[in-house]
Design brief:
This protein has 119 residues and is an all-alpha fold. 80% of the residues lie in helices and 0% in strands.
Length: 119
């Protein structure tokens, strides 16, 4: 069972690492997703990318996994509240699938945190 948890944790982490890299490779395009009321759009894209990469690495090497998973859950809920929910209210078609996806991933991140005691 322990191997299954480790494999699942790695599979969970890898997409976040890729998404983090995308934040650096396409920062200008992603800056448009930062809510207009938040100053410094590109800065937040880089911060988010760094957080995603750091969390992914932490989960893969199994160090500070509890905290990394909590950071991921917090980021994902923040995306739901600041990007997807306002988009959904504004009639964007892809906002609802994004909202549901990020809610599910936040739930999974909380499960990863639960399975990994504070280290």
């Amino acid at each position: 069972m322990k191997n299954l948890n480790k494999i699942g944790q790695i599979l969970f982490a890898l997409p976040f690492g890729v998404f983090g890299l995308f934040h650096f490779m396409m920062a200008g395009q992603m800056a448009g997703m930062v809510p207009s009321w938040v100053p410094g759009g590109v800065f937040w894209v880089y911060v988010t990318g760094l957080a995603l990469i750091a969390a992914a690495v932490s989960l893969v090497i199994n160090k500070y996994t509890y905290y990394a998973a909590l950071v991921l859950a917090l980021l994902l809920v923040t995306f739901v509240l600041t990007v997807h929910l306002p988009g959904m209210m504004g009639g964007e078609q892809m906002a609802m699938p994004g909202l549901l996806k990020d809610l599910a991933l936040a739930g999974a991140a909380l499960l990863v945190a639960h399975l990994n005691p504070k280290d």
